[in-house]
Design goal:
By secondary structure, the protein is of the alpha+beta class. 34% of the residues lie in helices and 22% in strands. The chain has helices spanning 9-20, 24-37, 66-71, 99-105, 155-158, 164-181, 205-212, 215-220, 262-271, 311-327, 353-373, 456-473, 492-507, 534-548, 554-569, 579-591, 610-616; strands spanning 42-48, 54-59, 108-114, 121-127, 130-137, 142-148, 186-191, 194-199, 222-228, 231-237, 250-254, 257-259, 284-289, 295-296, 307-308, 333-334, 431-438, 442-447, 450-455, 479-489, 511-514, 519-526, 605-609. The strands form 5 sheets. Strands 5-4-3-6-2-1-7-8 form an 8-stranded mixed sheet. Bound molecules: adenosine-5'-diphosphate (ADP) and magnesium ion.
Length: 620
C-alpha cells in the first residue's frame, strides 16, 4: 500500500501558517502591512485578550470588490506581483500572497470590504480555512479584517502562546514599528476596550517616539539626515549618556519596513565605541531609503531580514554618518540635577546678586558632598571597573607631577604633522576665570554659560589615548632604545603567545628579543610612553593578549592595549596639580575630539549651566 499522500490545500495552508503566523502579533503585522499597501490613511486596531480572542484591523484604503475579496484568501493570491521582474523591484510591504490564506486557515476570520466605486460592501466568513458565508454588507469604503480565536483548532500551537500581557507586549511592539515607519498614518490601538495609543497623521517621529517609547528618550535624541551615494537617511540617535543595557531601543527601517541587519547593528555599535560603556547599547532610530533593486527582501518569510547587494558599503556608510555626527558634537555630560524641594517662603530671602557667588560655591560644596557619598546624583552609573578597564596594576614609576600634559613631552613630530580627523571640531567650551582643584581629583572651571567639573584622570586618559591613536594612524610609534635593556620573565601563557605578539609590539614601538628559555629583553620603548616603566607595561600587555587575544578582533585588542597605556600614563586621582598644569590640561581638552568621554565611555566632564543653577535656586 503506498504511504505517500498529497496534502489537501487546507493542510498546506495550516503548515504554511507556521512560517508566517507565530502569534497574534504576527497576524497584526500582516494585516497592517496589507492596509498600508492598500493606500490607507487611517487605521484602527482593536485587540482583545492580548489578541488571542480578537485582532481586528479597520482601514480606509482602496478596498476589494466581491471577486477580489474571495480571491484574497486563496494561497499565493496577490495583486502585488505580476511578472518575475517585479520580484527584484518590490515597492509594497507584501508580495508573497500567503498571509490571508495562512491566517484564515488557523482562526475564525471575517473580512468586510468595499471599494470606492461600489455602493455596497461584501462580507466573507471563513472558519479554519472553510468558507462559511459570503454576502453583501453595509460598510464604508475600506476593509475590516477580524481574526478571532487564533489557533483554536491547533491546541499544540495555542499552547505556545504566552499570557495576555506578554502577547499584548508583542502586539504593542509591532504597532510601534509600523507607527514609526509610517508617520503619515492616523493610527489607533485599542486593547480590551481601552484606547492605548491614538496617533495623529503626520506627527513628527520624535513625537511618536515620545508617545510610544519614552518622552525622556525622545527629548534627548540627536537628529541627522542626508544623502549618500544611493542611500537617503534620516536618523534620530541617542546621546551616549542615554545608552541602555539592552538593544531593544534600536530600530532600523529600510524603505518603510522594519528590518534587523547584523551589519547595521554592528555599525551602530562601532559608531559609539569609546563614547559609551562597552556593555551599553545606543538608542537609535534609523530610516534608510534605497533603490529596491539594491537589496532583496525575499529571504525570510516575515521579511525581517534583507540581503544587501553590498553589505560592507552599507556598514561603512552607516558607521561613517553616525561617527561623523557624534564626533562633531559637544557630548559633555549634562548635570542631572534633582529638582530642589520648594523652600518655605520665609527661608527664601529676596534675590540679592551679591549672594549668588556664595550660593554657587555652597551648591558646589553640597554637590561634592553628595556625589562622594553616592553616585545617584547622575543618571549614569559608574560601572564597576573590569579588570582591564581601570589601572589595576600600579606603575612602579609614578608619573611625575610636574608634567600632567602630554604636550610638553613631545619629542617627535609636532601635532600638525599627524593626520587628524577630518571631522569639523565640535563647538568647544571656552574656559575662563580661575580653576579650582577639588580633593586633588576634580577640576572646576568656569565656562561661558556655567561651569564644568572635570575628572582629571579620565580626561588625561582620553587625551593620551587620542594622541596614541593619532600617532599610530601615521605608522608605528616612534621608539627609543633603552640605555639598559630590561629583562622580563614570562609565564607559560605569555611564552605561548609572545612570538605572535612581537609584530604587534613593534607597531607600538616596543622591541622584544628572546634572552634565555623563559626570558625576553625589552630593547626599545615608545617615546610617547617614556614615563612608564617598560617591564610592568609589557607584562600587563602580554597578560591581556594571553587572556583576551583569541576573543577580541585585532582592532578591539589594540584599543584595549592603548587604553591600558593611557590609563597607566595618565595623572591619577588624588594627585595635586599646579595652576599651569591644570591650564594645560584644559587647553588640551579643546584640541581633542571625544574629550567628553574617557576611553571606557565614562564622562570626563559634567557641565552645569547657569540656567540649571538658577532653577535649583528657584530664580527662574
Ligand atoms: P500579499 O500582501 O503578499 O499580496 P496577502 O495574503 O497579505 O498577500 O493579501 C492578498 C491580497 O489581498 C493582497 O495582494 C491584496 O490585493 C488584498 N488585500 C489584503 N488586505 C487588503 C486590504 N486591507 N485592503 C485591500 N486589499 C487587501
Ligand atoms: Mg500581505
Amino acid at each position: 500500500m503506498p504511504k505517500i499522500k498529497i496534502l489537501d490545500q487546507n493542510m498546506i495552508n495550516m503548515i504554511a501558517a507556521g512560517e508566517v503566523i507565530e502569534r497574534p502579533a504576527s497576524v497584526l503585522k500582516e494585516l497592517l502591512e496589507n492596509s498600508i499597501d492598500a493606500g490607507s490613511t487611517k487605521i484602527t486596531v482593536i485587540i482583545e485578550q492580548g489578541g488571542k480572542t480578537l485582532i481586528s484591523v479597520t482601514d480606509d484604503g482602496q478596498g476589494m470588490d466581491s471577486e477580489d475579496l474571495k480571491n484574497a484568501f486563496v494561497p499565493h493570491a496577490t495583486s502585488k506581483l505580476s511578472n518575475p521582474d517585479d520580484l527584484a523591484n518590490i515597492q509594497t510591504m507584501g508580495f508573497r500572497g500567503e498571509a490571508l490564506a495562512s491566517i484564515a486557515a488557523v482562526s475564525q476570520l471575517k473580512a468586510t470590504s468595499r471599494t470606492a466605486d461600489s455602493i455596497q460592501a461584501h462580507s466573507l466568513e471563513i472558519d479554519a480555512g472553510q468558507t462559511v458565508s459570503f454576502s453583501p454588507a453595509a460598510a464604508p469604503v475600506g476593509t475590516t479584517i477580524e481574526v478571532r480565536n487564533l489557533f483554536y483548532k491547533l491546541p499544540a500551537r495555542a499552547k505556545f502562546l504566552k499570557s495576555h500581557n506578554t502577547e499584548f507586549t508583542h502586539i504593542s511592539a509591532t504597532f510601534t514599528r509600523i507607527a514609526l515607519a509610517n508617520p503619515n498614518l492616523d493610527l489607533t490601538l485599542i486593547h480590551n476596550n481601552k484606547e492605548v495609543h491614538r496617533l495623529m497623521a503626520n506627527q513628527p517621529i520624535r513625537a511618536r517616539v515620545a508617545e510610544l517609547i519614552s518622552a525622556q528618550i525622545a527629548a534627548e535624541l540627536i537628529e541627522l539626515s542626508g544623502s549618500e551615494r544611493n542611500m537617503d537617511y534620516f536618523a534620530l540617535i541617542g546621546h551616549p549618556q542615554s545608552s541602555r543595557s539592552s538593544a531593544d531601543y534600536q530600530y532600523t527601517f529600510l524603505n518603510g519596513r522594519f528590518i534587523r541587519d547584523k551589519f547595521i547593528t554592528h555599525a551602530l555599535k562601532e559608531s559609539y565605541r569609546g563614547l559609551t560603556e562597552p556593555n551599553k547599547h545606543p538608542v537609535a532610530f534609523l530610516f534608510l531609503t534605497m533603490p529596491p533593486e539594491s537589496f532583496d527582501v525575499n529571504v525570510h518569510p516575515t521579511k525581517i531580514e534583507v540581503r544587501f547587494d553590498n553589505s560592507n558599503m552599507i556598514h561603512s556608510q552607516v558607521l561613517g554618518i553616525l561617527r561623523e555626527k557624534l564626533l562633531s558634537m559637544n557630548l559633555d555630560a549634562k548635570a542631572q540635577l534633582p529638582s530642589a524641594p520648594a523652600p518655605a517662603l520665609a527661608d527664601q530671602p529676596p534675590a540679592d546678586p551679591r549672594d549668588r557667588k556664595e550660593q554657587i560655591t555652597q551648591a558646589m560644596a553640597e554637590f561634592f558632598k553628595n556625589s562622594r557619598s553616592s553616585q545617584h546624583t547622575f543618571e549614569y552609573n559608574r560601572a564597576a571597573p573590569s579588570a582591564n578597564s581601570e589601572c589595576v596594576i600600579q606603575n612602579s614609576k609614578q608619573v611625575p607631577v610636574g608634567a600632567p600634559s602630554i604636550r610638553p613631552d613631545y619629542t617627535v613630530s609636532p601635532l600638525a604633522d599627524i593626520p587628524r580627523s577630518t571631522v569639523t571640531p565640535p563647538a568647544r567650551e571656552a574656559f575662563c576665570g580661575p580653576f579650582v582643584q577639588l580633593h586633588d581629583s576634580y577640576i572646576v572651571a568656569q565656562s561661558a554659560d556655567g561651569f564644568v567639573i572635570i575628572d582629571q584622570h579620565a580626561l588625561h586618559e582620553r587625551l593620551i589615548y587620542e594622541e596614541l591613536t593619532r600617532r599610530l594612524a601615521a605608522g608605528p610609534l616612534e621608539s627609543q632604545r633603552l640605555l639598559i635593556p630590561e629583562p622580563i620573565d614570562l609565564t607559560a601563557a605569555q611564552l605561548n603567545i609572545i612570538e605572535s605578539a612581537r609584530e604587534f609590539f613593534e607597531k607600538l614601538g616596543i622591541k622584544l628579543e628572546p634572552f634565555g628559555a623563559k626570558t625576553y629583553i625589552i630593547q626599545s620603548f615608545p617615546v610617547i610612553l617614556s614615563k612608564l616603566s617598560p617591564a610592568p607595561f609589557v607584562h600587563d600587555a602580554l597578560d591581556l593578549l594571553a587572556s583576551q587575544g583569541s576573543k577580541l578582533d585585532p582592532q578591539r585588542l589594540l584599543h584595549e592595549i592603548l587604553d591600558m597605556a593611557a590609563c597607566k600614563a595618565a595623572i591619577k586621582a588624588g594627585q595635586k596639580l599646579t595652576a599651569p598644569e591644570i591650564q594645560s590640561l584644559l587647553e588640551d581638552k579643546e584640541t581633542v575630539d571625544r574629550a567628553s568621554r574617557c576611553p571606557h565611555g565614562r564622562p570626563t566632564s559634567i557641565t552645569f549651566s547657569l540656567t540649571d543653577l538658577e532653577k535649583q535656586f528657584k530664580r527662574t
